[in-house]
Here is the input.
Amino acid sequence: MKFRQCLTFAIGLAFASSAGAQVVVEGAWVRATAPGQPVAAAYMKITSAQPAALVAVSTPVTARAEIHQMKMEGGIMKMRPVTRLELLPGKAVELEPGGYHLMLMNITKPLRPGESVPITLVVEGPDRKRLEVEVKAEVRSMTTGMGGHGKMH
Ligand SMILES: [Cu+2]
Here is the structure.
């Protein structure tokens, strides 16, 4: 599985910069969906060199992609959309299961393991200038992933 891991790393790394901001995205992945399942969560690690904020996301697989936060509130796991996810300079922000994630809603076609989903992150830099970061998120199933044996074909 060494080769696969290298490949994942290569396609999971995106880098974008402008005068206002410098953003690195690592390890982007999307959870595979079952047929008829309308939502998928996407995860990644985002690091901005300067104070910035993730303010919007978009993807060709759906017209409705949101930034979500998952949080325990009174013993219940709650999920809510956020309009702005602050990126502190040099501090990696992890979008991971149980925390922040990107939510792709109203998906009409299942996302299968091994595919990749292009996602555009809109990041607002300190000068309020907006920067678009293109990410390719690898689709992974819940059962494969860490240490699992994914079917190649
Ligand atoms: Cu969500």
Q: What stands out?
A: The pocket of copper (II) ion is lined by residues 41, 68, 79, 101, 103 (CB under 6 Å). Helices lie at 2-12. Residues 5-10, 144-153 have pLDDT under 50 and may be disordered. The two ends are 14 Å apart (CA to CA).
